[in-house]
Amino acid sequence: MEFLEIGGSEPFRSYWEMYLSRGLLLIFVVDSADHNRLPEAKKHLHQLIGTNPILPLVVFANKQDLEAAYRITDIHEALALSEVGNDRKMFLFGTQVTENGSEIPSVMQDAKDLIAHLAADMQ
């Protein structure tokens, strides 16, 4: 599998659509503890997926280990994931870095397997 991480900073956003048109799925990562940026993340996510109504979507709600982090249901609501369309495969995972960073949490292994399956289905 090949991944292209473009980043969410303003200078990189102009590249999003160019690469997304060739992608097999969209993996969108949000900081669960950065409540102020979730409306901006929602806006950009819906702009991205609006161009392709069947592109599978995997959302990682990162930093779930932080006390200030929104929980999965809050992220689902904040990003309006119920509005992504009935024809789209959509998955939301809560993620966090392990204490020593060397061990892969089971949720990440599940996500990896799902991403491989979705990519194979789209080819």
Automatic annotation (TrEMBL):
Keywords: GTP-binding, Nucleotide-binding. InterPro entries: Arf-like_GTPase, P-loop_NTPase, Small_GTPase_ARF/SAR. It holds the Pfam family Arf. GTP binds at G8, N62, K63, Q64, D65. GO terms for molecular function: GTP binding; GTPase activity. Gene3D superfamilies: P-loop containing nucleotide triphosphate hydrolases. It comes from the Eukaryota. This is ADP-ribosylation factor-like protein 9 isoform X3. It comes from Callorhinus ursinus (Northern fur seal). The lineage of its organism: Eukaryota, Metazoa, Chordata, Craniata, Vertebrata.
